[in-house]
Design a protein that fits this description.
mainly alpha; two-stranded antiparallel sheet; globular
């Protein structure tokens, strides 16, 4: 029996390593890749159960990747905790909503979301940090803005600012969406930090990891309370999570050596590919 189970376990661990490495590289956790794969592999499993597996695995991935990002000085802790004040209630509502949405509708929304976000990221040019900050100053009164200063392990100092009230409203909405889709949130959080809140790309990737960990922990607890975890889910979490632990470390170290614009393009490419694969699979049925 062990010999029959081992190849499947090894395959899931390899999946975890790949998803964990690439997801951490772009600061998105990997849920945007893992969730479509799980939906394709297990077309007859309930959406809530698949989402629960994905969220628990991404929690493992973000903890591992977050440790590496923290050592590099790439996490804005205070901003992450402030955003969590509103993203947690949203994620709780999102976890509850998955129980009442048909599987076909779930997959359709997920695929369209991935493709739309991919197109936006390819078309949208990443502004330089100084230009983004200058633009932000014209969007409201200065008293509403928070101005963090982040210093990386390499001694690079990033200065940026964002409207705190606007940011917390956005993250309330994001909390619901990412938990509903079971993706952990990085696919939405990273673009939000970069394009809407003027975060430097390298700080956005690290900060997103901490936010995703908080969201995934909350959503995983909610899914457990709703009865989404069974032996099937536990086995898959152990297998995929074991690979993610090592993949996340590799992705975080590689992320420090890759240009920011390339990270954004890599994220956009992965989002689009995942969405297209889901649509093709649906049409083939």
């Amino acid at each position: 029996m062990f010999h029959s189970v081992w190849p499947a376990y090894a395959g899931l661990a390899l999946l975890g390593f790949t998803v964990g490495g690439y997801g951490t590289l772009v600061g998105a956790g990997g849920g945007f890749m893992l969730m479509p794969v799980l939906l394709l592999i297990y077309p007859h499993r309930p959406a809530a159960e698949v989402a629960a597996i994905s969220l628990a695995c991404i929690l493992i991935n973000t903890i591992s990747g977050g440790i590496a990002f923290a050592k590099q000085g790439r996490i804005d802790y205070k901003s992450a905790l402030l955003f969590s004040i509103t993203i947690i209630p949203g994620s709780i509502l999102g976890s509850m909503a998955t129980k009442y949405v048909p599987r076909s509708d779930f997959e359709g929304v997920f695929a369209l979301f991935l493709i739309g976000l991919s197109i936006f990221m390819f078309m949208k040019k990443t502004e330089s940090r100084s230009k983004a900050v200058e633009h932000s100053k014209t969007c409201g009164h200065s008293s509403r803005f928070r101005r963090p200063v982040a210093k990386t392990l390499d001694g690079i100092v990033f200065e940026y600012e964002y409207n705190l009230l606007w940011a917390m409203v956005i993250f309330l909405f994001l909390g619901f969406v990412v938990s509903f889709l079971g993706i952990g949130g990085g696919a939405l959080i990273v673009p939000t930090l970069i394009y809407l809140l003027a975060f430097p790309i390298f700080i956005a990737a690290g900060t997103s990891t901490l936010i995703i960990a908080i969201v995934c922990f909350t959503s995983t607890v909610m899914h457990a309370a709703l009865g989404s975890f069974h032996l099937f889910a536990v086995i898959h979490i152990m297998a995929i999570g074991s690979g993610m632990v090592f993949g996340a470390q590799a992705g975080a170290h590689l992320s420090a050596r890759v240009k920011g614009a390339l990270i954004v393009k890599c994220l956009a490419a992965a989002l689009g590919a995942a969405g297209i694969k889901m649509i093709l699979a649906a049409l083939a049925i």
